[in-house]
Specification:
The structure is a homodimer. By secondary structure, chain A is an alpha+beta fold. In chain A, the strands form three sheets. A four-stranded antiparallel sheet of chain A has the order 1-7-2-5. A three-stranded antiparallel sheet of chain A has the order 4-3-6. Chain A has a three-stranded antiparallel sheet with strand order 8-10-9. Chain A folds into two domains: 130 residues, Sandwich (Jelly Rolls); 102 residues, Arc Repressor Mutant, subunit A (Orthogonal Bundle), CATH 1.10.10.10. In chain A, 43% of the residues lie in helices and 19% in strands. Chain A starts with 6 loop residues before the first helix and ends in a 15-residue tail after the last helix. At the A-B interface, strand 4, helix 3, helix 4 and helix 5 of A face strand 4, helix 3, helix 4 and helix 5 of B. Chains A, B: Pfam families: cNMP_binding (PF00027), HTH_Crp_2 (PF13545). Chains A, B: This is CRP-like cAMP-binding protein. Chains A, B: GO terms for molecular function: DNA binding.
Chain lengths: 243, 243
């Protein structure tokens, strides 16, 4: 794959118009590709060896567990996302990262990141933008669990995934392929799998969307956006701010 | 105040051993000091003029509102924290920032940030570290609301604030001055003010901590840490990783 076509470049290109030297540095970040099977943690909480990855294909989830054994999924990562960027800058990983599907990802070393920032400081700003966007999504998940009802938070979440996938060429306003089980959705949204099932049925019967056979279909995109009060601004997708 | 004594430098110094040129750039980030009164938004959601600040003194909260009028406080910021870093890199602010007390803050321009990164790339990594740490705190708030009971989440939150304030010289394991009302705590923790009041009484009666007259006092720090299952690792305070 040409570096211009990688999901990471498509994503960062939404913030900064990338120059050839910047593209070359990003290309090198794809230089250590590895495969990981579904269901086996790539990074676990408390791990001292710091590793970060750029996800090239497949889906992963990042989660934390609490003392009683409960688990909270913080977010899912899709192609073009960094995995474990916090782990790279912290002494120990503060969360777990588990592939939801088989994934292809390239390891990014901290030395490589700092070297890239030295040679192309605008890339540092672009990576900070991507990290800020990741934080903005976690903020929305906090607002959802704290203040949105089950229908609103489910719709908001599936719209957010759609917007992220569209940015990297893997979705449209019609829908997207989605490998998530109702159990995974439940752990992310603070609902039970039974409750998720009921909410998805309600959304389908209302003619807004369906999620069946690994595919999310938006039947009434505007109606779903209105239900969820979904405002794309926090994903900042309006084209390069830095020319 | 000497730049070495500013909360921002104390905080970033926990990640990178700062050189004189780096200190000079951080000093310049304090070059546009302004005062803001309590209770008036400094930044509001949807605002197009992008402004970020470094907080020199006082406390602020960042929050989002939802369609029904509810509000979720995402975090509080204390001296040394950036305010609105996401706003700076996004086209529109995605949250509101309101001073809890009178605050002193210096505006940071995006041009200044990029210029600083160009001249001192390690600063870019340090700012990315600070942003990652901000995200790690939001993640903990999500886990708290999703998976921790009222006592655990209140204790976790007040321990986190203590650790952050200790890093910048404004707290110890004995306690810290805290201007937050029970209403603000309630909006952050997804509890009612009445519930917060009861939880604080329970924690006091258990001999763990008290929060009275604007001061949090830890009476049994280790016991409180055990109750909350509080693991400091996500704040990454172990001294400079980059020498």
């Amino acid at each position: 794959m040409q570096v211009q076509d990688t999901p990471l470049v498509r994503k960062l290109g939404a913030f900064v118009a990338l120059s050839d030297p910047e593209l070359e540095i990003l290309g090198r970040m794809h230089g250590r590709p590895r495969s990981f099977p579904a269901g086996v943690d790539m990074v676990h909480e408390g791990q001292v060896k710091r590793s970060a990855y750029v996800l090239a294909s497949g889906w992963v989830c990042s989660y934390k567990t609490v003392a009683g054994g409960g688990r909270q999924i913080v977010d899912f990562q899709v192609p073009g996302d960094f995995l474990g960027l916090r782990s790279l800058l912290f002494r120990t990983a503060d969360h777990n990262i588990e592939p939801v599907t088989r994934v292809e990802a390239s390891e990014v070393l901290i030395s490589e990141l700092i070297d890239g920032f030295t040679r192309a400081p605008r890339l540092a700003t672009a990576v900070l933008w991507a990290a800020s966007r990741d934080e903005a999504m976690v903020v929305e998940h906090l607002v959802s669990i704290g203040r949105r009802n089950a229908q609103e938070r489910t719709a908001h979440f599936l719209l957010e995934l759609g917007a992220r996938l569209t940015l990297v060429g893997l979705g449209t306003q019609e829908g997207y392929a989605c490998p998530l089980s109702q159990y995974l959705l439940a752990d992310a949204l603070g609902l039970s799998a039974v409750h998720i099932n009921r909410v998805l049925r309600e959304l389908r019967e209302a003619g807004l969307m369906s999620f069946q056979k690994g595919r999310v279909e938006f039947h009434d995109f505007a109606g779903l956006v209105a239900l969820a009060d979904f405002d794309l601004a926090y994903l900042d997708h309006d084209g390069p701010l830095l020319k």
